[in-house]
Each structure stands twice: as C-alpha cells, then as structure tokens.
C-alpha cells in the first residue's frame, strides 16, 4: 500500500492500518474556518450551500494553492452540480462576499486571477462590532444597579468618554479604555480624559501619552499627581522668573554675601 504526502508518494510501513490512516490524516492538513464566520454567515444572507462553496474555495486556496478552482473541480467535493455551484458563486459575487482580483505568483513569476475573500471579512467585522457593542450595552445595564465598586467606576468611565466625545464608543476604543483601566485604574483614566478635554485634545493618543507619563513618574493616585503638578509649576515659575529677569537670582545671592561680610566685620 502507498500513501501520498503532498505531491510525493511513499510505501506504507507494515503495521497498524490505523496508524497509516492517522499519518495520512495529519499530513493532509486542515482548513481553518473561523467559528465567528460559522456563527454569523446566516445574518450576512449567505445560504448553507453558498457557505459550503466558500469552505471549499478556502480549501483549494490553502491546501492546493488554487486561487480560482473550476466548478467541475468544486463539484467533485460537494453534493452539488457544476451549475448549482456556478449559481452559488454568482450569488456570492452579487452579495459582495467575494470578488476576483489579480495575484502575483512567485513560483511561476506570473500574474493570475483568483478569488478574493477580503470583502467577506469586512462584512464579518461589521457584525462583530455590532455584537460587541450590544454586549457592552447589556453589561452596562446589568451593572447599573450593583453596589458601588470597580465595575460601577468602569461603567462611569465608559459613559464619560461617550459624553465628552459626543458619540458611542467603538469596540476598539472600548478595548483600549479597558486596557487603561486594568493598568492605571478608572480614576486615573477619568482624570486623563478630563485633562485632555481641558486642553482641547479629543483623541485617544493624547490620553495614552498622559497615562504613560504618569506611569513613567510612578504616579498612581490623584494626590501624587497633584503634588507632582505643584512641583512642576514651582519649577516652571522659577524658570519663567529667571527668564524675565536673569539678574534677579544674582542680586539675591549678592545681597546674601554682602550681609555675611558685614556681619563678619562687625564681630
């Protein structure tokens, strides 16, 4: 008996047939279909036959390096006729789930036409975003009536961002705020938001910069931040004073020296 590994064929070793089957099964590889796609494809108006056609297109692309398999080849793997598969592919085009695009084939140094799945995953990302937004909204409503604690502070933080930005948060923005809260706590995140708004900076990069600066200076509470600000303002005021009157510092030092010399002569 013989087994095939890619485009190579070898003779089986004598032994357990189950082991030979396992070798073939493992070497044949697998096609990864995102569970999120299997969960949401019906909401994207993709029928079951169309979904199976998509899965086979994935397989041909990943396992056989065939970016544009013929309907006859697809029919060999599906319980559908070539005509039905052609209709499925046409429907997927009309629904803007897939498109045809040009690919550069490195092995053959040639340009070939193949199916492009990017529109499919763009649509899927929209459903993911809507789903996450609903989950966040549901979580907020569930936590509203709970006792004051970290969860309530987190929800208040989300709401403060939505209020200041004047719109609902995107899932990516919510994830970023959650990351900040985990690292710095909701109070410091809220304080960073307040300072950004006061400076007219309604963007996440500016807020991230504030939080990184506090972390670099080991400032982990509102009181430590306030004390740091006072010291900074004092240093800034002294520098400003010297800038406006460079001789002021020299005059004060000179007066001190004169007073010391006078005291020495009088004793």
What tags apply to this protein structure?
267 residues; mainly alpha; Arc Repressor Mutant, subunit A; two-stranded antiparallel ribbon; disordered N terminus
What does this 3D model show about the protein?
By secondary structure, the chain is mainly alpha-helical. The radius of gyration is 34 Å and the shape is elongated. The protein starts with a strand and ends with a helix. Strands 1-2 form a two-stranded antiparallel sheet. Strands 3-4 form a two-stranded antiparallel sheet. Helix 7 packs parallel to helix 9 (186-198), helix 8 packs across helix 9 and helix 9 (186-198) crosses helix 10. Among the domains are: 1-30, no CATH class; 34-143, Orthogonal Bundle (Arc Repressor Mutant, subunit A), CATH 1.10.10. The chain has helices at residues 17-27, 35-40, 48-63, 71-75, 82-94, 118-143, 150-165, 171-184, 186-198, 204-216, 222-244, 246-266; strands spanning 2-5, 8-11, 99-105, 110-116. Strand 3 (99-105) and strand 4 (110-116) form a beta hairpin.
Task: Describe the SSE topology.
Elements: E1 2-5, E2 8-11, H1 17-27, H2 35-40, H3 48-63, H4 71-75, H5 82-94, E3 99-105, E4 110-116, H6 118-143, H7 150-165, H8 171-184, H9 186-198, H10 204-216, H11 222-244, H12 246-266
Antiparallel strand pairs: 1-2, 3-4
Structural class: mainly alpha
CATH architectural label of one domain = Orthogonal Bundle
Helical fraction: 55-70%
Considering the protein shown, what is the CATH homologous superfamily of one domain? Winged helix-like DNA-binding domain superfamily/Winged helix DNA-binding domain
Note the gap between the termini.
Answer: 116 Å
Give me the strand/helix succession: EEHHHHHEEHHHHHHH
Tell me, what's the shape? elongated
**Unreliable segments (pLDDT under 50, ≥5 consecutive)?**
2-6
- Specify the biggest β-sheet: 2 strands, antiparallel
Mean pLDDT: 80
* CATH topology annotation of one domain: Arc Repressor Mutant, subunit A
| Discrete helix count | 12
Q: Using the CA coordinates, give the radius of gyration.
A: 34 Å
The top level CATH class name of one domain: Mainly Alpha
Residue fraction in strands: 5-15%
Provide the spatial order of strands within the biggest beta sheet.
1-2
